[in-house]
Design goal:
The chain is α/β, with parallel strands linked by helices and 339 residues long. The protein contains twelve helices and twelve strands. Helix 1 runs parallel beside helix 12 and helix 5 crosses helix 7.
């Protein structure tokens, strides 16, 4: 890989880059062509010393799924940019980054459709009991036609209620409204201008107050980013206000949900089932009742986990980092005001 293979705007003086989660080889090569690169995963005890030493020199960090908190940033006095291979930025100390003028980049846009596919897979698997019934076949328990006790719930024509209506929420809404004839209602801080942002959803998706959404939705799908205002937002009060028999799906962040309240709603309330790609603690602790609950379909945070999409995310994060280190403003700087 040479400089001429790179997009314009990244021809900076060599700087120190710390890669804290493995990157695809072609993206690592793009970095190495321009900068001095250390790859060290702080989650691996044997790489921790290397990570610490590189952090003290780093102008740029790139990676994901590791908390870049204020204490870590204090050990990186030369840092100019953090490039996350994720769209969510809840692992980063936003105030400390802002106070130091360190750019935070992320990967919006390239994962929307893939995450929406995963959310829909979870919605369909949960309502049609796909995992449970497949297990029945695998275990040789399909000895007669299944009875009503194993029937599922319809999806087509049912009402989808979205908590959060960003790019990914809109991609979920398109699948529901255009593919499954589902009326879509959503609750977000402000209504989305559908004519400008999602004309195909005009007349098919409506912004409604939260109590109305909870009372009407057959599927409540949480696509919330994690912030001070959304942490623990989906709690006992919200579960109690959901329509009897509702199915709850979480494709955003686990800590937006009070998991104990979710379990109570499944066991003692009227929630029919839950499909969860995200959890308050990940990986999900073995002791968590959500792991084995018969009416929970759990997934290991796979929203964006396809070869194509993870590569696209890594490529965008690499471009962001290269542009920032060259003194240019990357396209995908995280902007709290827009979030
Ligand atoms: C993200 O990018 O924040 C997603 O959670 C990854 O799946």
């Amino acid at each position: 890989m040479t400089l001429s293979d790179q997009p314009p705007g990244i021809d900076a003086a060599r700087k120190q880059v710390l890669v804290f989660r493995e990157l695809p080889p072609d993206q690592l090569a793009r970095l190495q062509a321009v900068h001095d690169v250390t790859v060290a995963d702080p989650r691996k005890p044997e790489e921790r010393a290397c990570f610490d030493a590189a952090l003290a020199q780093a102008h740029g960090l790139i990676g994901s799924s590791f908390p870049v908190d204020a204490a870590l940033l204090a050990r990186a006095p030369r840092l100019e940019v953090v490039s996350s291979v994720s769209v969510g930025v809840d692992n980063y100390a936003l105030d400390a980054l802002q106070a130091r003028g360190i750019l935070l980049c992320h990967t919006p846009g390239v994962l929307d459709e893939t995450v929406a596919d995963s959310v829909f897979a979870l919605l369909m698997a949960t309502s049609r009991r796909v995992v449970e019934l497949s297990q029945l076949v695998r275990e040789g328990r399909w000895v007669k036609n299944i009875g009503e006790d194993l029937f599922g719930c319809d999806i087509h024509g049912k009402t989808l209620g979205l908590l959060g209506f960003g790019r990914i929420g809109q991609a979920v809404a398109r699948r529901a409204a255009l593919g499954f004839g589902m009326p879509v209602i959503y609750h977000a801080r402000r209504p989305v201008d559908l004519a400008a942002q999602a004309p195909e959803l005009q007349g098919k998706a409506a912004h409604v107050p939260l109590p109305s959404l909870l009372a009407r939705a057959d599927f409540v799908v949480a696509m919330l980013p994690l912030s001070d205002s959304t942490r623990n937002m989906v709690n006992a009060d919200l579960f109690a206000a959901m329509k009897p028999g509702a199915i709850f799906i979480n494709g955003g962040r686990g800590a937006t949900v009070v998991e104990e309240d979710l379990l109570n709603a499944l066991d003692h309330g009227t929630l029919w089932a839950a499909g969860l790609d995200v959890f308050a603690t990940e990986p999900l602790p073995l002791a968590s009742p959500l792991r084995t609950h018969p009416r929970v379909t759990p997934l290991p945070h796979i929203g964006s986990a396809t070869h194509d999409t993870r590569h696209a995310m890594a490529a965008l994060a690499t471009t962001n980092l290269l542009q920032a280190l060259a003194g240019h403003r990357p396209a995908a700087v995280y902007d709290a005001a827009q979030a």
